[in-house]
């Protein structure tokens, strides 16, 4: 799914959940095929989506033929939904309007009246939203396509909104959970494939991170800005001993990994036993490989460079913080400096 579309659905679901959790009501309006989408949504909210739970206040404004025809006959078709909002809506309620084109006059009229009456408005349309976009607090725009394709996407929107609502209000959970923090390499590879299918780019950086300092933090923060998610590799204790000497690490790998994983810019942490992260990089194929500037010239070995270049990845090197290193701090401590 397009990440933009997914974010819009999530925001809409959270807004529906907020209104319903606060005791508000949800109304839905649309024409033709969109009218059936309204009834589908409200029936899932009043009844249930998957698991048993209390009913939620939701009304489709497309479901009463007598009301619709009376309003259309006396006031005109453009007011068939807005008149019902005037009668039924209250401040703090929510109106969801479905319009494939985004230009349906009666739907826009309902959205305007709803906003004037203190209701929040979610528009479900195609990308851009047409004229409807200006009448909404939230817009969910399906990717461009035929009318049939957009309506199919709207069905997905309905189901995902219901999942978010039931999760927010009742704590019900559906589908796989996105893993975070310290994981094994096999789990990281599985999560990486999920991110790839979602169109999310991955950055990688790695190091010993023994006595975490400002230089480490600078590289990690900069790396996180290069992609949608960041995976950080941490050398194991055995690896650090081989690279730094028998008296290192100062901080054991479990603590080093926990500290890195606690940083809000880090999505996953992987501990590796090899002297370099070549195997991790080969399996994870991050779009962006990040390292400190001391590796940029090639004077320090970087075996994983060829792997990154082989699949078309991008290497980024960040400037170091002058005078800041774990080795230097350990030496000064031991000499009393």
From TrEMBL:
InterPro entries: Cyt_trans-like (IPR004821), GmhA/DiaA (IPR035461), Rossmann-like_a/b/a_fold (IPR014729), SIS_dom (IPR001347), SIS_dom_sf (IPR046348), SIS_GmhA/DiaA_subfam (IPR050099). GO terms for molecular function: carbohydrate derivative binding; catalytic activity. Residues 16-175 form the SIS domain. Transmembrane segments: none annotated. One of its GO terms (biological process) is carbohydrate derivative metabolic process. CDD domains: SIS_GmhA (cd05006). This is SIS domain-containing protein. It comes from marine metagenome.
């Amino acid at each position: 799914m397009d990440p933009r579309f997914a974010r819009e659905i999530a925001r809409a679901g959270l807004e529906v959940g907020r209104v319903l959790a606060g005791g508000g009501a949800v109304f839905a309006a649309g024409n033709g095929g969109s009218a059936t989408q309204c009834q589908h949504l409200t029936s899932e909210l009043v009844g249930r989506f998957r698991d048993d739970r209390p009913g939620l206040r939701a009304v489709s404004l497309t479901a009463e033929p007598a009301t619709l025809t009376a309003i259309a006959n006396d006031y005109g078709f453009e007011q068939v939904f807005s008149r019902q909002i005037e009668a039924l809506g209250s401040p703090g309620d929510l109106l969801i309007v479905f319009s494939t084109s985004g230009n349906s006059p009666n739907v826009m009229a309902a959205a305007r009246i709803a906003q004037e009456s203190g209701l929040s408005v979610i528009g479900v349309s195609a990308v851009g939203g047409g004229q409807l976009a200006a009448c909404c607090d939230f817009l969910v725009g399906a990717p461009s396509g035929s009318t049939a394709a957009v309506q199919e996407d709207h069905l997905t929107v309905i189901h995902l909104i219901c999942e978010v609502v039931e999760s927010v209000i009742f704590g019900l959970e559906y589908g796989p959970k996105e893993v975070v923090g310290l994981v094994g390499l096999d789990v990281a590879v599985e999560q990486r494939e999920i991110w790839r299918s979602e169109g999310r780019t991955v950055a990688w950086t790695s190091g010993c991170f023994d006595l975490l300092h400002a230089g480490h933090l600078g590289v990690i923060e900069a790396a996180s800005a290069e992609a949608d998610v960041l995976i950080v590799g941490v050398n194991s204790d055995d690896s650090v001993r081989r690279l730094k000497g028998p008296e290192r690490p100062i901080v054991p790998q479990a603590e080093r990994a926990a500290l890195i994983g606690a940083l809000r810019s880090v999505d996953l942490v992987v501990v590796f036993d090899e002297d370099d992260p070549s195997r991790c990089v080969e399996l994870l194929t991050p779009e962006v490989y990040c390292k400190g500037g001391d590796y940029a010239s090639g004077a320090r070995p970087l075996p994983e460079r060829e792997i990154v270049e082989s699949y078309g990845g991008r290497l980024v090197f960040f400037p170091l913080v002058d005078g800041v290193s774990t080795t230097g701090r350990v030496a000064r401590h031991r000499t009393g400096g």
